[in-house]
Amino acid sequence: MKIMKRSDLSSLRRSVDQGTEEQRRSVQRIIQEVKENGDQSVKTYTEQFDGADIVNWRVTQDEFDEAYMSIDGGFVEILEEAAANIRSFHEKQRTTSWFETSEDGTILGQKVTPIAAVGVYVPGGTAAYPSSVFMNVIPAQVAGVKRIVIVTPPGKDGKVPAGVLVAAQLLGVDHVYKAGGAQAIAALAYGTETIAPVDKITGPGNVYVALAKREVFGDVDIDMIAGPSEIAVLADHTAKAEEVAADLLSQAEHDARSSSVLVTTDESLAEGVRTAVYEQLRSLPRYNIAKASIDEYGAIIVCDTKPEALDTINEMAAEHLEIVTENPFQDMAQVNHAGAIFLGPYSSEPVGDYFAGPNHVLPTSGTARFSSPLTVDDFVKKSSIISYSEQALQKNADKIAQFSRLEGLEAHARAIESRKERWK
């Protein structure tokens, strides 16, 4: 884990993985085959990539029941409480339609309508993510989405992790399909004999999932193309090195390309955190992944002043930002770019990942400069409403016609002037 100055920050930057030319061609081929052959292509690629021979790829009620019975009751209660917290937070984001009327009879407004159908991708592989079910499905439900479909890659035994199925069942989502990768994204975007097409696809995945989402965008909407996870910790003398190290490792274990960075003005804390990181690293089950991340993208940036440290934090625009300082709320006011901000020593990043309520689908790779977390707004459409009265049009017709001709659009002007016969 490198100790460096702010001038070296550029060495840590990672863009969203664009994939190789071979990977892009492979994804394009898979998408085209699913468009042409539907279920059969999904089945073929599931056998090829996941090693599972799926006959019925929609999860049955018996499979939901089996998953529920296999989960400890205490864990189910934790899932229920987490879901309640997440729902409560997102309900506060709900927007409603509005209209206003002027004295001349003009009515202007905004009509808010839920997206009709959403597909949620839940990753498989080295970890199963019930939290991904909650963070993608709950805001869609709060928005009023009527049809929600989950796709997730099966294990070689043809089963979906029990935690994922229990999370889906707790939310009342019974359309869960055993399919992953680019073939699942294609099925959601274009439909097959089994899956009707959706209007938007959300959820994280590997490079093939990301490339597939990029390919189908425009035919359907997507949430974002997410890069590797990242955390920045702004800390001072009040922080405990062991706690900061643990928080940095909480992101390092996600992926070998994850980034974990401490920004501080305290050199003794910097040395203490580096020592603690390698001590704690040795006992992590995902040691190889976390060590590769820490060695390549882990860093401690020592700044001369607090303003320099805050400038560094804003330059990073991290996905997750922890502020563990003497006055975290005061320091937070100076932060302009971050996906989620965790304040104080008791707000460790996993609090937000699983339980507090805010969404953990966050902008990565510096895109917090212009992007926001996944919200209820991502699952609605907004239509502008315009209703001019005769009085309003009569008052403004000449102005609108002149504006139209200024842009060289004569037919626009004539469309307005065609109404003038009404008030002669």
Automatic annotation (TrEMBL):
Start and end residues of each stretch annotated as Disordered: 1-24
Organism, as annotated: Halobacillus shinanisalinarum
Protein name as annotated: Histidinol dehydrogenase
Record function comment: Catalyzes the sequential NAD-dependent oxidations of L-histidinol to L-histidinaldehyde and then to L-histidine.
Coiled coil: none
Gene3D superfamilies: 1.20.5.1300, Nitrogenase molybdenum iron protein domain
A GO molecular-function annotation: histidinol dehydrogenase activity
The protein's required cofactors: Zn(2+)
Keyword Zinc in record: yes
Top-level class of the enzyme under EC nomenclature: oxidoreductase
Cofactor: record remark: Binds 1 zinc ion per subunit.
InterPro entries: Ald_DH/histidinol_DH (IPR016161), Histidinol_DH_CS (IPR001692), Histidinol_DH_monofunct (IPR022695), Hstdl_DH (IPR012131)
Gene expressing this chain: hisD
Protein family: Belongs to the histidinol dehydrogenase family.
